Amino acid sequence: MDILHLVDRLEELFNSGRHFPFTNDTIVNEDRFLELIDQLRVTIPEEVKKAQQVLAQRDRVLAQAQEESQRTVELGRQRIEALVQQDAITTAAQARAEQILAQARQETEGMRRDADDYVLESLSKLEAEITHLLSQVRNGIAKINSERGGTPPEFPTGKS
User: Fold this and answer.
1) Is the whole-model pTM more than 0.90?
2) Residues of 38-77 as b/e, b for ≥16 C-beta within 10 angstroms?
3) Is the CB of residue 3 less than 8 Å from the CB of residue 43?
4) d(CA 71, CA 43)
5) What is the pLDDT of residues 1-59, one digit of tens each?
6) Closest Cα partner for 19 from 28, 7, 11, 10?
7) Distance, CA of 97 to CA of 102 (rounded, Å)
8) Are 29 and 56 in contact (CB under 8 A)?
């Protein structure tokens, strides 16, 4: 029996009872009242079981729907990635990126060569200056030794 139907019958029983004037008291048929309460005791657990079954079924359906939606989203994501990789714009961008990298490598190599040339030129000038200074130092030492009457020292030439 439906729980709402039993509640309606309980309300009918109450409404058909005798009301005492100037009070909130009502007299109802005790046998019918207890019979309805017994029927409610039987019906309520069945209704609760049905409600629990419905809730469990709802949870299963929601879990399945969520799993299916996750699968659909993942498939969509994979499809998008595949389309992006195949897209002509992506291919052109990749080619342009490779071209830029090659150009950067060439410029870097040119800058490295220029830097090496500059360092080599600077070191060569420094070597010439040092050689010139060394020559002046040796000449000065030789002049002082000759003025004193000594023998000039032997200097290494610095060249092999």
Assistant:
1) no
2) ebbeebeeeeeeeeeeeeeeeeeeeeeeeeeeeeeeeeee
3) yes
4) 42
5) 687 888 888 889 888 988 888 888 888 888 998 998 888 888 887 777 888 888 888 88
6) 28
7) 9
8) no
